[in-house]
Amino acid sequence: xxxxxxxxxxxxxxxxxxxxxxxxxxxxxxxxxxxxxxxxxxxxxxxxxxxxxxxxxxxxxxxxxxxxxxxxxxxxxxxxxxxxxxxxxxxxxxxxxxxxxxxxxxxxxxxxxxxxxxxxxxxxxxxxxxxxxxxxxxxxxxxxxxx
Length: 147
Known about the structure:
This protein is an alpha/beta fold and 147 residues long. The protein contains three helices and seven strands, in the order ββαβββαβαβ. It has helices at residues 30-35, 81-100, 115-127, and strands spanning 4-7, 14-19, 44-49, 53-56, 62-65, 108-113, 133-137. The strands form two sheets. A five-stranded mixed β-sheet has the order 1-3-2-6-7. Strands 4-5 form a two-stranded antiparallel sheet. The longest helix has 20 residues, at 81-100. The two termini are 26 Å apart.
């Protein structure tokens, strides 16, 4: 399972799994989650995972936190579908953990920025009724037929 920052609610009834962009980590969105200033009564838990460290081709093979490899500047080229699938399996572990804790699927959102946004779109496509929705900031469809 991925390492993550957990911003729990006292009594949580909903979960947002928020995925960072290339080269960042889960700490990137911790201040934003707090700045939303959601009332404690909403019971929203934030899970902010850290992507694994991997070489990123477009950055000269530099090892950094990345949900998947990026080999081309043209997003129309074939993406790293294997890396995306691997990261989605990890995200799904968080989703299943929340469901096991009694959180209904419709109260679980996957959100993300950049690479995390790509995963959020893939998650809503792949998990269908398994999550309540997705939020993608500065993301793109990894596959033209994703949604």
